[in-house]
Amino acid sequence: MKRIKKVLVANRGEIAVRIIRTCKDLGIQTVAVFSETDRKSLHVRMADEAVSLNGVKSSETYLVIDKIIAAAKLTGADAIHPGYGFLSENALFAEAVEAAGIIFIGPSADSIRKMGDKTTARKLLKGSKVPLAPGTEDSIEDLTEAKRLAAEIGYPVLIKASAGGGGKGMRIVHDPADFEKSMHASQNEARNAFGDSRVYIEKYLENPRHIEFQILADQHGNTVHLFERECSIQRRHQKVIEEAPSSVLTPEMRQKMGEAAIEVAKIGTYYGAGTVEFLVDKHRNFYFLEMNTRLQVEHPVTELITGLDLVREQIRIAEGETLGFEQKDLKINGHAVECRVYAEDPMNNFLPDTGMVHLHRVPTGPGVRVDSGIVDGMEVSVHFDPMISKLVTWDRDRNGAIARMCRALEEYTLSGVQTTLPFCQFVMKHPVFQSGNFDTHFIQNYFKPEHIEIDDPETIQNLAIGGLNAIHWFIREEKSEPSLSGNGAEKQGSLNLWKVRRK
Amino acid sequence: MKRIKKVLVANRGEIAVRIIRTCKDLGIQTVAVFSETDRKSLHVRMADEAVSLNGVKSSETYLVIDKIIAAAKLTGADAIHPGYGFLSENALFAEAVEAAGIIFIGPSADSIRKMGDKTTARKLLKGSKVPLAPGTEDSIEDLTEAKRLAAEIGYPVLIKASAGGGGKGMRIVHDPADFEKSMHASQNEARNAFGDSRVYIEKYLENPRHIEFQILADQHGNTVHLFERECSIQRRHQKVIEEAPSSVLTPEMRQKMGEAAIEVAKIGTYYGAGTVEFLVDKHRNFYFLEMNTRLQVEHPVTELITGLDLVREQIRIAEGETLGFEQKDLKINGHAVECRVYAEDPMNNFLPDTGMVHLHRVPTGPGVRVDSGIVDGMEVSVHFDPMISKLVTWDRDRNGAIARMCRALEEYTLSGVQTTLPFCQFVMKHPVFQSGNFDTHFIQNYFKPEHIEIDDPETIQNLAIGGLNAIHWFIREEKSEPSLSGNGAEKQGSLNLWKVRRK
Amino acid sequence: MKYLVKIKDQEYNLHVTGFLETAENGNRQTIDLVPLDANRFSALIGTKSYVFEIYQQNGEKFLVYKNHTFPLVVEDERDRLVSHMKQVNRETQTFADIKAPMPGLVSKILVTEGGVVQKGQTILVLEAMKMENDVKAPIAGEVSRILVTEKQNVEKNSILMRIG
Amino acid sequence: MKYLVKIKDQEYNLHVTGFLETAENGNRQTIDLVPLDANRFSALIGTKSYVFEIYQQNGEKFLVYKNHTFPLVVEDERDRLVSHMKQVNRETQTFADIKAPMPGLVSKILVTEGGVVQKGQTILVLEAMKMENDVKAPIAGEVSRILVTEKQNVEKNSILMRIG
Hints:
Shape of chain A: globular
Largest sheet of chain C: 8 strands, antiparallel, barrel
Structural class of chain A: alpha+beta
Radius of gyration of chain A: 24 Å
Strand content of chain A: 15-25%
Largest interface: A-B, 55 and 55 residues
Strand order of the largest sheet of chain C: 1-2-3-4-5-6-7-8
Number of strands of chain A: 22
Radius of gyration of chain C: 19 Å
Distance between the termini of chain A: 52 Å
CATH superfamily of the largest domain in chain A: ATP-grasp fold, B domain
Distance between the termini of chain C: 35 Å
Number of helices of chain C: 1
Number of helices of chain A: 17
Order of helices and strands of chain C: EEEEEEEEHEEEEEEEE
Oligomer: heterotetramer
CATH topology of the largest domain in chain A: D-amino Acid Aminotransferase, Chain A, domain 1
CATH class of the largest domain in chain C: Alpha Beta
Shape of chain C: elongated
């Protein structure tokens, strides 16, 4: 068994920071890589070493296999952690890393090929006890053939990227007349996001819940699941709020789905951390959706209910260690909720926002964890995903975790860009969410921008009074100190109304 | 049973913030009170309402019962939480609160009288199965008599304040020749800290460990303990590092000490949260030390290993609810460590430091919690305790919790005052601390300021290079922008070497 | 000084009667306002505690409270008089001098002398405080004079060009 | 420019050969240095990543790295020459003009004309950048002239008083 001594993290943002943290816990040296716009990022500051990838866009930097491997060689890293996104589910990358004599902290290239590609995975699972939703077996290029298959499966259908995840390239088609436009849109998005335009078609389940199982497997054939995550709150088919455990699963269903997830992993001869996603329909039937052959964004909720550190487990598995526990040793402890904080304007159809983050003050206190890669003075740019951070709360029960989330959301201060924070607050306080009885259409069914407005009359009036006096304060400061300029730069936290914000 | 709707927090700093957080979780409105120097403090910002106590020093503000009760009446608060320190163990305050028709979130005035006073408590416990260390029964004023008793008990002896806690007014006397000076010093300190100069004398145990048990009791006679906290790492008899569980307790000893703690609470007809402190000698005998009739600074380690929120439990008990669990329902889950971050210079005999905190960036990520009342731009003043925050980590085992603490300490950024952060790092990395085999003399036995220095030659050289270039940067900025003054104030994050720091 | 404050479809007639003292309909209230960092303030109004941020973007003011952004309009008597006058004169206004709203560097001039501009059209970009600020035409008309060149530093209130 | 940098009992002869390029004993190294907030910098030296703070207090420089504070002494050739000259002249130096190290307000004058001061004694407090800065006597001697009064604003380098 080879102990890993130095890990290069081939990623950016919160996940790079999160991986670095665990490496530090384990006494492992860390190497960050960065695009030019990320020079000031937290992952660069926190890593022991950092190497520029000489470029701005992800296609010039975080997606360039050769540059990453060169950085690992330069620094003598003996392992690479891919995080999520970017090259994390790229079998060629996993192969190139291994070929360079470096440990890839993730599954084998073979497993990525088998399970990372949805159509391949579906073929492999056919005939197993894992239930599959009706859909195409192969990815499809030909429009006429695709249309025929869609009709055969029966509308509504879902067009999905073979290579991808995270909702990118996904389209629901209710009406055959929209099929062609949707297929092209899906192919384009898939090409841009993954460099692979292949798509496939499957039955679109109505009122589904998106429930996924975290699995862990070592290289010696031991596989366990770490229970489920409920990920039904989505906008644009992307998760925004996740929790564990799910409020609909009975212990029996949990056991059945967990066994199915383990079966999927075993069929894929999988090792490392992975996620098996299922859709659960309103009759509580569940269907295999896809497997993500990497760490998920939402892994912290699983960490909070199991007490495990999934990155630590990934590293131990990559070193060749056996899992230190069996399925029967694992218990669900309490409840965890995660809100993804995006730089998006919930008042304006979740349009991504960009700009300088002037102030980023994260909540803390009992039961709160924040995974973030942003700090004061950093730009949220157009080049990368607009996710700013993940806010996660835990308590002994679901109501407690939600209450702590409400508190943490209120405490969270981010200035400079519009964020989904008020939207998350809306969800947490919504009776349907609180009831636990919701599906993936929650946002379209229940959310309107005006719902998140503050309209308590006393508050509004006091904000008017406070705002007026604050403006007066600026004017007074400016008048009383015409040569404020003289030592303006020296004033700690000095303020200027006229300086701030641009798009 | 009366539901509490609005809580006034009669405290400041991190504990006020921490109480407000739980109130928010419970949907309870909050009222902060503040001394003039605390106007910008986090507890004032976070509370729904805030009332000035019109004064600066604690004797003019947080210690003035009438002002606090007036603030509660003004805002219609139906309960008062005293936090720790200040009026939290003042029976007159508890009585005055109840007399004003307001719920005191804490034990009865009667219990405070009985158990809060060490000599009274010792008298009450005499004859019970709770073991007591040899010492005086009554507080003592007369020097000659005190000296005689000290000789009878046998040197070394400990002189302690009857009213106090937190090591204030405590003196160890090894030599009868030092007795008089020590007694006067102790009386003076006790008078200043608690307005009560009474002291008592007890046997000073050598190589003792300080281990305390958290107890919870409702108003219906149900009492449980929430296991122990190990608090042996102390400087100037004040705790700096705590953990739970203790690495020396066997399950049998834990059970015996837990039962003794419950016995103490029952003898004091105690309800609320409280702590029974014990000294454990090198033969693993344990002796009752004192009871703290309030929430402790170090309560978060207990919260992390039990999953309970102690402030929530306090509020529920104050409302008259029964505990929702019995002793057998409670299990220790993992291990937690707390470091208190003080504005003190560990290189200079832990001399308190004061000044403006320019930058306060707290660590987060897996297993980290920070309870803090400070934010950028706040002063650490001479008027109050120099504790800035509490950094707490959790993991499945002690080694993991310590590793996470090392990481979190490194990540913690505080600029403007000297802190105990590097000292805490020293303790975490010390083999004796890591072994679990240490006593209250750890600091005097193992710590020298030079031990916490960084002296890796490559690091030092690179800091020289980096520092020189940074100074060059300042000079360049100044030269190239002689009228930087013009819009200096507008520069986000603009820097100036010459502006910073004063004492 | 009397103000009209508009926030979230509400209008308040507020009278700033003194240092941090405001009255509405004769009810005086002392406000305890302290600046924090990054344009944030802590305000105690009565006993109620608020933390909010104020910023200005493209000449409009915004207030951010608990991560909600509220457009904020503050008009004093002069403003109201001016805005009233503007309405009266709008039809008859024949020219406008464009002044620099802040000191800065003219980074782009987007019109030429003799060119015709629409009201609201961006005519010049002023770089100041590390930002590009669009300067817009307050009226429609012909650009009669341009008094600055690109890359020129200008003082606050210096005339940049004349329209009409 | 050549410098002597002293940190933690180590001395380094560093040669700043260009923009963020430093040489020691002929070994050139490019430094990637970016300012962060509050006097902090991120430096990449080779591949190694450092975040540190630089500040100055009472004329001395400090570097803070991982919550450890290091006194930092940076001398260029001129400084060394001057410090050498100072040593030579120390015995013979008979007077000193005290100049304002920064613009500010004279908040306190702690000596009177004709009074005798010790070297290092605080003779005047200059309020600047919201701080009180002690101005100390560089030599011992009699205060021969005081050129400012309390509450007076002074420019940088203006002469405040003469000793000797």
